[in-house]
Amino acid sequence: MTSTDATAAGQGRAGVWNLPNVLTMIRIALVPFFVWFLVADAPGLHSTSGPWRWAAVAAFAVAIYTDKLDGDIARSRNLVTDFGKIADPIADKLLTGSALVMLSLLGELPWWATLVILVREWGITALRFFVIRYGVIPASRGGKLKTVVQTAAIFLYLLPFGAFAPWMSWVAFAVMMAAVAITLWTGVEYVVEALRLRAKGRRQAGTAPGQETATGPDQA
User: Fold this and answer.
1) What pTM did the predictor assign?
2) How large is the C-alpha radius of gyration of the chain?
3) For the purposes of burial, counting CB atoms within 10 Å of the CB of 38, is it exposed (0-12), middle (13-18) or buried (19 or more)?
4) How far apart are CA 88 and CA 24, in angstroms?
5) How many of the other CB atoms lie within 10 Å of CB of 57?
């Protein structure tokens, strides 16, 4: 084996303890601190828009930056691992999910918006695992746009500008409604793609719809 081949093989067998995965773990670790900062700022669940609120904004910003940074490093250094593929989206959903729930608990974001986004996010995650035996559903451009708009909406909600710039609340609400719309639209796209992928996989296996053999729990 040449040195080049050995290097490539070593990169392909990147272990769990590499920089992108450590950044993902840091993002997960930041979630409870982010939640605690919001709670500390809101005794009795009434936000005071004080320094703890700004600490929550900073924690969210750092966590979002690590999300971009770990992806860039993983791709540029060929450090994509199975752990990263699973942990990275979980970290994202923990962060955005906790932010949405906390904003609703504080009475700043309607619960229906939080529930729509969370049901879509975790539902599509479950759907990905359900059809993984037929193939992987790749992230679409719409999915990436959804993530950007969701992040922007949450960030606008977190910024404690309402006291001296009430119009910012309307801007945040408008961006969140756009995020909800894109979330629903991309959710439908992923469902259609999952059905297409499942049908294609069954055709390739030579199994007609409704005629699977019950050989294991994954075929229930």
Assistant:
1) 0.78
2) 21
3) buried
4) 6
5) 17
